[in-house]
Amino acid sequence: MAPVTVSFATLGCRLNQVESQELMGLLEGHGFRAVAGEEAAQVYVVNTCTVTGRADFSDRQVIRRITRENPGAVLVVTGCYAQTDPDAVARFPGVDLVIGNQEKYRLPELLTSLVKRRRPEVKVSDISGAREVPVAPFARVAGRSRASVKIQDGCQHRCAFCIVPMARGGSRSQAPEVVLEQVETLVAAGYREITLTGVDIGHYGWDLVPRTTLAALISRIADTPGLRWLRLSSVLPAYFTRELREVVSGSPVVVPHLHLPLQSGSDRVLRLMRRPYNTRMYRALVEGLAGAIPDLGLGTDLIVGHPGERDEDFEATLDLVRALPCSYLHVFAYSDRKGT
């Protein structure tokens, strides 16, 4: 009997990309065969994003395109859009399963039937109660020479503009042993460059018993035989303890590249945003890291048009960015999100 074919459409952040790889690994372990490109599949999984209104629009476009081009295929919608607005997703014609961010790791058991549903089956629970990061190992990354490893999910912060805590729940960390085993598996498979990712990776380890830290995890991963480079995804400035500064500037395997979200160069707007740092703290951190790490590549995020932002706040952001050794900027227009 031929294996059931499955195709993934992944939108949004690096974390979504990793989770699609995890889900693909789970399905392949249950006899499914992943297909890509133009090859038709029997099952389509759309892993959605909802960080902005534009992201929701892209989600809807992909869902409609798949149902139009593959009307007989089983269509699964998961990810952050499915988590925060499952009723809206279930109203799309052709959708068979709507699965939340925790439930998606049950995907193999939920795909026992390939019969199109008359009504969508919705499996979305309150993610605020999530306390663990599911374990879903994988050994290959389709079409990539660099692999990412999920070390953490959720966020403890409640920034005024951000829907992510409602989509992902509170911060929770993966056990160090699980992370190390996944890194070792990927390095053994030929991926010599690894990126550590999550929603709020600077918070890594605070919820574990015994408690640990991102710096301690990096130090352990750095000893992995065969690992050439280790990258970090976005880290909040407030998490840069002396220990973390020392390991990112002193480890020979940590790539001299950091992404430190700023969002605004105005302290007044940062307070409106409920960000856990100010511009003085941010500038001191960046200048210290740039002095300690030769040829540092520094990236940051900025939001323009946040409610309450004035012309002088915008000018303060421009002035600060001009003064910092930034290599690139991710600039977003403020997007109103339900519940924020």
Describe this structure in words.
- The structure is a single chain.
- The chain is an alpha/beta fold and 340 residues long.
- The chain has three domains: 5-125, Methylthiotransferase, N-terminal domain (Rossmann fold), CATH 3.40.50; 132-253, 2-Layer Sandwich (Transcription Regulator spoIIAA); 256-340, 2-Layer Sandwich (Transcription Regulator spoIIAA), CATH 3.30.750.
- It contains twelve helices and 14 strands.
- The chain has helices spanning 14-29, 53-69, 80-84, 86-90, 107-110, 164-168, 176-188, 214-221, 242-250, 267-273, 279-292, 311-323, and strands at 5-10, 33-34, 43-48, 74-79, 97-99, 121-123, 147-150, 152-153, 172-173, 193-197, 229-232, 257-259, 297-304, 328-333.
- The strands form four sheets. It has a six-stranded parallel beta sheet, sandwiched between helices.
- α8 (214-221) runs parallel beside α9 (242-250).
- The model has no long low-confidence stretch (mean pLDDT 95).
Topology:
Elements: E1 5-10, H1 14-29, E2 33-34, E3 43-48, H2 53-69, E4 74-79, H3 80-84, H4 86-90, E5 97-99, H5 107-110, E6 121-123, E7 147-150, E8 152-153, H6 164-168, E9 172-173, H7 176-188, E10 193-197, H8 214-221, E11 229-232, H9 242-250, E12 257-259, H10 267-273, H11 279-292, E13 297-304, H12 311-323, E14 328-333
Parallel strand pairs: 1-2, 1-3, 3-4, 4-5, 5-6, 7-10, 10-11, 12-13, 13-14
Antiparallel strand pairs: 8-9
